[in-house]
Amino acid sequence: MSRILEKIHHVLIRLCFRPIRIFVFHHVSDMHDPLICAIEDWTQMDQFKRNILSLQKQYRFISLTRALKKLKYDWFRFGNYAVLTTDDGLSSVLELLPWLEERKIPLTMFVNSRYMECDVLKTVHLERLKEIAPDADIKNIAEKMYLSKDQVFALNSSFIEIGMHGHDHLNAQRITEGKFEEDFEVGKKILQSHPRYIKAYAYPWGKHTIESTTYMDKLGIVALAVKGGKNYVWKPCLNRECIDNISL
What we know:
This protein has one domain: TIM Barrel (Alpha-Beta Barrel). 39% of the residues lie in helices and 19% in strands. The protein is built from nine helices and eleven strands.
């Protein structure tokens, strides 16, 4: 009987609520720089704008904060809504912000607090550079790639929200629960004083665990992963969809 009731509930949810889609992107620029990112993490600027304009014909973009309220409190939802997010605190986003604001599209930026120092790169990026440019100046690349702490904290537009992406860019499925909590708390301490800070955490690599989500839920932090499925109602861990290097 419980399975039958579960199926009925599942059908009712989909009849009463249209899903809120949450998109995530990374590097956007006019030309791809292999020292900055792999091609799969990059979208050409004009293509990105065409993608967003295409989505804007289908969805009304709202802030993540508003989306969370709708997922929690809507009695029904027949409108099409979407949220735009970006990860890592990348400097290329600065060129996009005026255009997004002109289009009245809010943006939630999930920032790794470690990389605001602009002196280090993710391990996977260092490994890639060893193959394509072993003599590359790591600090110079980091300074080009990431927003500094001063730049991040200077972002105070009503169209921007700042969420957490971990202090370092760690895969929650490959570290202990204790290590996750330690890294999470460092990032939270640094970012929570930001004027546009929100209580949201996007998992690096999109990888989540039940234990880490439960830990954050107790602190009132909503988690976001890339795990398939759509967001009909509020859950402690919501889903995002990556739109890097595609044509919509």
